[in-house]
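Lab notebook, bench 4. The sequencing result for the construct came back, and we need a structural model before the next group meeting so we can plan mutations. Quick request posted to the team channel:

Model the 3D structure of this chain.
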Amino acid sequence: MDEDWEKRVDAAWATFDEYPEERAAEFRAVIDALVAELPEGSALGPFERACAWDSTGHSDKAVPLYREALEKGLRGYKGRRARIQLSSSLRNVGQPEEGVKLLTPELDAPSDELDDAVRATLALCLSSLGRDREGLSLVLGALARHLPRYQRSMANYARALVDPEG
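Done. Here's the predicted structure in token form:
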């Protein structure tokens, strides 16, 4: 879509906190109105609607919309966001194993500002499956890059959690 539409979507999301839980439907209506402007078959529509449902506490309604957005070809940054958010929603609806399958390939994707979100969400999915050491390893590895000191030690500890020999 064009830059003006993206700016209006960003502006709508900037007002999200002005909608308390009892007004969640009003916020979703704002997003639905913007989505209605998109061309038929756009992957952005289901993505934005999924985000709105997800952000208002309805992971169950968000899951099929995220899937639709990805099936329609949502790529790049928003595609990666959709995979992260879908994985989180899958975990929330009791399907963390699907979240793990969806996010694991993202560990090898080109690096961007979403890397830590991938690792944090994947760690939550792994924890839901009882794989806490793997999850903790991911989180420590992500955190290590942001520490003012001890980066090497924390990265080594993170690796040792899943590979004590290595």
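The domain at 3-95 is CATH 1.25.40 (Serine Threonine Protein Phosphatase 5, Tetratricopeptide repeat).
Will bring this to the meeting.
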